[in-house]
Amino acid sequence: QVQLVESGGGSVQAGGSLRLSCAASASTYPFNRLCMGWFRQAPGKEREGVATIYTGTGSTYYSDSVKGRFTVSQDNAKNTLYLQINNLKYDDTAVYYCAAVVVWLPSLAAGGTCRMELSDFNYWGQGTQVTVSS
Prior knowledge:
4-stranded antiparallel beta sheet; 11 strands; 50% strand
């Protein structure tokens, strides 16, 4: 079982920055055997992936829409995932979710990246709201 708790959302003006956090508690699984991801869902839209990271190696993957503005990182000592969002845009307004799946694959251990498919992830946080005003 993996429990995820997001924090750090809020209301900011366009051009501002936020850092979202996702604290993971995995009583059975080691933190360094997780594909973790950040997803977001805007009002009236489907949930979409923005970034993933494999905690065993730190390999990251970003959607094209956020490359250069979003940075995903991890702190293994704190079992915490972060999403740094810079130069926020109005279209970034959404509920941001942290997700995880326990996985170990040779391809990931060799530096491969986690996929950004919603169906791959079976543990989800409750979400944190990010609202960007122009």
